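Appendix B, record 7
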Amino acid sequence: MSSEQQAVARARKAFETGRSKSLEHRIRQLKNLQRLFTERQKEISDAIKKDLNKSEVGTQLYETLGLEGEISLAIKKLKEWAAPRTVEKNLLTLSDTVYIKPEPLGVVLIIGAWNYPWAVTIQPLIGAIAAGNAAVIKPSEVCVHTAKVMEDLLPVYIDKELYPVVTGGVSETQELLRQRFDHIFYTGNSMVGKLIMEAAAKHLTPVTLELGGKSPCYIDKNCDISVACRRVAWGKYTNCGQTCIAPDFILCEPSIQDQVIEEVTKSIKEFYTDNPKTCPDYGRIINQRHFKRIMTMLDDSTIAVGGDNDESDCYIAPTVLRDVKPEAKVMQEEIFGPLLPILSVSGLDEAIKFINKGEKPLALYVFTPNDKVIKRMVDETSSGGLLANDCLVHYSVSSLPFGGVGNSGMGCYHGKFSFDQLSHQRSCLIKKLNMEGVNSMRYPPHTPKKLGWARFFILNNVDLGWIGRMALLAVLAVVAAVVLQNYLL
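Structure tokens (predicted):
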């Protein structure tokens, strides 16, 4: 038996003991996980510095701070989320107990990504623990140092049988995917997402796919271009552009292109100094393979700003491309790097048409002071999320579902959405063995009169107070007696 098989078998055996289901156990595990981020921040930050050149403050800001907030929310709200949920009844079920009971799915596989290795791996784990599941955690092997820290630290703080960490590369991931899980949660690109779905289909395993795509950014000529470009530059060059919801390209009218370039350039200098290579807040491309992939995208475009690079250091300067054509190499796939193409459009109509020609993106950004422009973007396009007059920050709002649509993914998470995504919403209806007269309408022989009664009872929903329910029950009892006496014939 492979080590991957053993990890899955141990997790399932631990789940079958039932210990992950108690709210006390879930809360205890979440508190232990929270303690990890306060006690081992240095080790976490040091590893990410080696992998992505993130500063310690940047690591907390973009990786662990959000996780601490998610854990606190889950601990605070868990009893409410896990409680049975009452639902509306029809007349036929008025005297019954009808509710939805969230219950654990079982053993969840979480496959993390390398760009925000803690945030996108641990956030679904928080949902899995809160929902009462076991979970096998597979951090990305691309972040070598962070994967090792996860492998070392998570078993110290949380139940190592229920939540094992499996490290390794493609072969180890493939071996994991051959096992049967009750849910698979994957963050990454759409090409691998298709392989995940294919493997999951063999066991009819449901999946959550958090993918990416080319997230458009439309800048209206009437907006405050200085502020808009400052926010776009922050969203684009954070983590060296290796963010799934980074603005991938700008759409704007030709008349403001030079001003956009000028303002983005100002923001680059403000954020990262005249020499971003020496700035502690400017990251690096994860490895040389991705460095070469990104540099190839520059072949047929005009560099307006930046372009400096150093392969040995995996460094690519914040770069802006002007007068980019839709058929350019940089427009054929998600960039996932610090290149910002600018494409000219005649106005909002053409921008919307251009956006709708492509795959549905994970995020869509629009900068405008005009509510009508925002409304048209909301009404006439489709994307995982839409943000007006800022970038990235919708990810931090736990009350908003985060996820893609179409090519950018399926399913969503964050806050209660994580809990619901990794729970089975079990329908429960509890009847008593009385009032059989009402049931007579469903028994053969079927007659038009029985159908009439059935229509009355089934098609009328009720939302009554306590007194109203008691009065209606009394009426129904009389009706049932009459129905039974006349056999509905």
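Remarks on this record: The two ends are 66 Å apart (CA to CA). The chain has 17 helices and 19 strands.
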